[in-house]
Amino acid sequence: MSDVFDSPIARQIAELNAKKKTLKKKSAPRPGKTRVLAVSNQKGGVGKTTTTVNLAAALATFGLRVLVIDLDPQGNASTALNIDHRGDAIGSYEVLLEDIPLSEVIQPCTEVPNLFCSPATLNLAGTDVELVPLENRETRLRSALESFLDEQETAGKRFDYIFIDCPPALGLLTVNALVAATEVLIPIQSEYYALEGITQLRDTIEQMRGYLNPDLVVSTILLTMYDRRTNLSREVAESVREFFPKETLDTEIPRSVRVSEAPSFSQTVISYDPEGVGAVAYKEAALEIAQRGAAKNGH
Ligand code: ATP
Ligand code: MG
Fold first, then answer.
1. Does this model's pTM top 0.85?
2. Is residue 61 in some structural domain?
3. What's residue 3's pLDDT?
4. Looking at residue 239, which CATH number applies to its domain?
5. Considering the domain boundaries, does residue 147 fall inside one?
6. Residues framing ligand 1 (Cβ under 6 A)
7. Domain total for the chain?
8. Is 44 contained in some domain?
């Protein structure tokens, strides 16, 4: 019997239960002003979209008002949030290219109160090229977002968090996100070549700081798809923490089948499997982000 109670599985269950108990007592502080996070890494498949939708849903579940701007033509964030982005739907494309206000394209997420999304429709695929000849091509999202935030604040409906899900490229869509944002969140997959491309992303961020967005900071690094049983995951985590000692969250997101299957049910893992390891980890990461922000602003 002692084997059963002392097994790794039993220990993991006990750990998860303890985490859930602690989480129940926690609340996320409201930021002093809206925090705008671009979730970016030009490497594909590292968990940008999964991180965007689950952190957004976690913070909304804590009672904060959250908007996801889907800026990836793949529209995966829109799918996970069950937001209509086919047919006649309008979204981030119209905001960027046709000067349609954000307030006219956002839709509430039916599964999660306080959570809204500006969908990515198929026409967003041409945006990188269509933006090139336009005036203010790098600042279009920032202008739209500034007007939107002012309007919401005046109406007494201030947003606490805006997450921008970027495509896996450093083209004009990502540039628009980096110019509109105040912070960058980089998800890093706990796999071989995890840090590959990060220097290039940092150079792009540096360029934005030098020219259009001097206050932009890489505030948050999140390790995704972490497998604590493997040496590889541990080694990657170690080198990421060496490279980004202040920015890397203590919480790692474990690899979990529930996390990957939630979007096929048009859900985030926060509503699909609220008691599972994935939801618990994303809630813990969301709290860390909220608390670190509050500590920085002296709240
Ligand atoms: P892209 O660059 O194509 O936009 P991405 O960086 O947004 O990709 P995701 O789509 O979030 O990455 O994740 C890539 C794949 O990994 C998806 O199939 C997703 O379901 C899966 N995945 C992400 N996080 C986890 C996790 N913690 N556990 C298991 N699978 C995961
Ligand atoms: Mg994605």
1. yes
2. yes
3. 56
4. 3.40.50.300
5. yes
6. 44-50, 72, 74, 76, 168, 224-225, 253, 255-256, 259-260, 278
7. 1
8. yes
So what's the pLDDT on residue 108? 97
- Rounded distance from Cα 2 to ligand 1 centre (Å): 38
Q: Residue ranges of the chain with pLDDT lower than 50?
A: 1, 299
Instruction: Choose the residue to mutate in 43, 49, 270 for probing ligand 1, maximizing ligand atoms within 8 Å of C-beta.
Output: 49
Q: Which ligand is nearest to the CA of 255?
A: 1
User: Which of 70, 260, 268 maximizes ligand 1 atoms within 8 Å of its Cβ, making it the mutation to test the pocket?
Assistant: 260
Q: 47 lies in which domain range?
A: 35-296
Q: Tell me if 226 is assigned to some domain.
A: yes
Reading phi first (left if > 0) and then psi (alpha if -120 to 50, else beta), residue 149 is in alpha
DSSP alpha helix (H) spans, the chain? 2-5, 8-24, 48-61, 76-80, 92-98, 102-105, 127-131, 140-154, 172-180, 198-211, 231-243, 257-261, 269-272, 277-296
